[in-house]
Amino acid sequence: MRIGIAGLQHESHSFAPFPADLAAFEKPGGFPPLSRGPAMLDAIAGTRVPAQGAREVAAAEGHEIVPLAWGFAMPSAPVTAHAFDTIAGWIVEDAAAAMPLDGLYLDLHGAMMVEGAPDGEGELLRRLRARLGSRLPIAASLDLHANVTRAMVDAADVLTAYRTYPHVDMKETGARAMRLLLDRLAYGRAYARRHVPIDFLVPLSAQCTLASPMRELYEAIPTLIEQTGAVDLSLCLGFPYCDFAGCGPAITAYAVSEEAAEAAAAQLRATFVGRRAEMVQRLWSPEEAVHYAKAHAALAGPPIVLADTQDNPGGGGHGDTTGLLRALVEGGAGGAVIGVINDASTAAAAHAAGEGATLDAALGGRSDGVPFSGRFTVQRLGDGRFTCTGPMTRGNRADLGPCALLETGGVHVLVASRKMQAYDQAMFRHLGVEPATLPIVALKSSVHFRADFQPIAKEVLVVVAPGPVVADPSALPFRNLRPGLALSP
Fold it and tell me: Mapping DSSP to helix (H, G, I), strand (E, B) and coil, where does residue 17 land?
């Protein structure tokens, strides 16, 4: 059979400062760059992106793979219309040119907003159906944070989502989506399906599947599938920074019979809603976190890890606010390291000055107007190119542009020219920093860091320093959410 493969991933934050333009897809930090046609297969080879998992399953079963296009941009404000029209246009036009296809697999996020189209994935699927017709089977993998809309469910034959956060099962989810597509082709007709929205938002830091209640909820999904006879069952927790009517958690269920789909969705919903009171997490102010870490950290590690959750580049932050850095310096946290601060101009100044030099700089603060001004020593320089080694993105080739390891007030600062969530120790090691040997490691991340850093951490503290990825979504000025949606569990 001939199976088309394409991908378009972006997680959109309605209140973030900068949109995702075409350049954001061309150089996306720690993920493969924008690619089209056969070049797509080279770009994703050896990575853990979902499309690679889907590709391997199709190839192993002897099917012909038709590569269309694949693009990913780091989370930010919504995607520009030009960027979306360009990439979606490639996918739609190349799929049409490749017909007849037997099936189409899509590597999607599920929380992409576009200028003029708040349901980005729904719009992509609408364009595909308009051009390719209603009979072509389409399966898609989704991020656990997807805001799954009825338009998405109606337009696709199967949607299946990650079951881990940190997302260590991206490739496996792509493989599952391809198997579901092949099963759908063998079945020969549409599955029964259920789409069950949940009526409350869940804070991002409370969505981690390494802790209760999410751990038990996701561990139960395979058992529920087996008990009910469903084909697939997914729980998407939603991305609670998307200001549109489709924002929020949702359950999708697929089965041969209407009864099985209904039973699977209903049982998972009842279990999920029954544990809503547990969906909370301890949060620390920067000053509290630094004071505690200094008192309890060991000089040579293992580190106490501070998660700078509200400036998480993986949630729409620009990776350049300096509230936690200021608390570390003013709190005398000597030996600590913080990263990654996104500031191309300071990185360039460090490269111009050279290793061992000192420079005065106003670091970061481009997104909120509050830089950290001080004198820095240039300790190490790098080109920002490395291969990720952690469980989530092992094999992904990163390119953060010119990077520098700076020091001020005894605190080390990793500065990059492009933003990337600090979820992989390789980004520190490429500048000679071994995180496990330090007393305090501060990371611009909400949860993904836990896959690679929690195993080396003495403790983890979630810190609420300035940034747009607010720990409490109810503080945001929403205008377009659906009536009756509670802003917290």
Answer: coil
Q: Tell me the C-alpha distance between 220 and 215, whole Å.
A: 9
Contact 351, 381 (CB under 8 A): yes
Alpha-carbon gap, residue 355 to 353, rounded angstroms: 7
Question: What is the distance between the alpha carbons of residues 252 and 225, in angstroms, rounded to a whole number?
Answer: 12
Amino acid present at 240: P
Q: Which helix (H) or strand (E) element contains residue 340?
A: strand 337-342
What digits encode the pLDDT tens for the residues 403-427?
A: 999 999 999 999 999 999 999 999 9
Each residue's pLDDT tens digit, 256-285? 999 999 999 999 999 999 999 999 889 999
Find where tokens 């219309």 sit: 81
What stretches of 141-280 show up as alpha helix (H) in DSSP?
150-155, 170-187, 214-219, 221-228, 258-274
Phi-psi region of 264 (alpha: psi -120 to 50; beta: other; left: phi over 0): alpha
The alpha helices in 377-488, defined as continuous H runs, are 426-429, 450-453
pTM score of the predicted model: 0.95
Query: Structure tokens of 270?
Result: 């009842």
Contact 3, 99 (CB under 8 A): no
Condensed to tens digits (0 to 9), the pLDDT of residues 22-35 reads 999 999 988 999 99
Distance (Å, rounded) from C-alpha 285 to C-alpha 401? Answer: 31
Residue 280: Cβ within 10 Å count: 13
What count of Cα atoms within 13 Å lies in the side-chain half-sphere of residue 466?
17
Instruction: Specify the pLDDT at position 301.
Output: 85
Q: Nearest Cα to 348, choosing from 419, 407, 402, 412?
A: 402
Q: How far is residue 28's CA from residue 411's CA, in Å, rounded to a whole number?
A: 28
124 within 8 A of 88, measured Cβ to Cβ? yes
Residue 196 CB neighbour total at 10 angstroms:
18
Cα(192)–Cα(457) distance, integer angstroms: 45
